[in-house]
Amino acid sequence: MSYKPEFRFNREWRERSIVVPVPVSAVSEFIMRHYLRKRPAVVVACFMLLIDGIARGCAVYALPPKQTAVRYNGVTWELARLFIDDEVPANAETFLIASTVRAIKQSHPEVKMLVSYADPSVGHSGTIYRAANWTSDGKTDQERKTPRFDYRVGGVTFSRKAHVPKGAEVERVPRVSKHRFTMRMSA
């Protein structure tokens, strides 16, 4: 894919870009274009990437399961959705993540850790998190003694059997462990 010259990631490009906090309703279109196509359950912060005043992407932070805060010994937020238009260079994701980390540090000092996941089942390996200086923290389910399964009905996958429509014929498929990355917010 060739990028338009106006979107080269350089000082000039960054000077025309800004990341701003917005309500979750402002990023609904981007969330629906994300591969998961759904909003996280408990959204705590949303940010939009603007280039020349035009919305080009978003980052959405949510509360992770309670055991995540226990694991990291303090208030933890999950970078649950990250989306940038394809026309924008790939390294813009690092710019967006870094901008949101700075904003959270400034506005939410109670947050001690950020966590996010890279899903290998859709080709994600965590390159953007490594580029943004996040720390690899293993994989999900690596401490489990028994494998986990998802439930597939047609082409739709459910993580919990309770979410499967009643009476549907279910295929049990082994769950792919995701790469976990963290960013410590305070010393």
Description:
The protein is an alpha+beta fold. The chain has one domain: 3-Layer(aba) Sandwich (Aminopeptidase). The chain is built from five helices and ten strands. The chain has helices spanning 11-15, 28-33, 66-71, 92-107, 127-131; strands at 17-21, 43-51, 54-62, 76-84, 113-118, 135-139, 149-153, 156-158, 171-174, 179-184. The strands form two sheets. A seven-stranded mixed β-sheet has the order 1-2-3-4-5-10-6. The protein has a three-stranded antiparallel β-sheet with strand order 8-7-9, with no helix packed on it. The longest helix has 16 residues, at 92-107. The chain is globular, with a radius of gyration of 18 Å. 25% of the residues are buried. Residues 1-9 have low confidence and may be disordered.
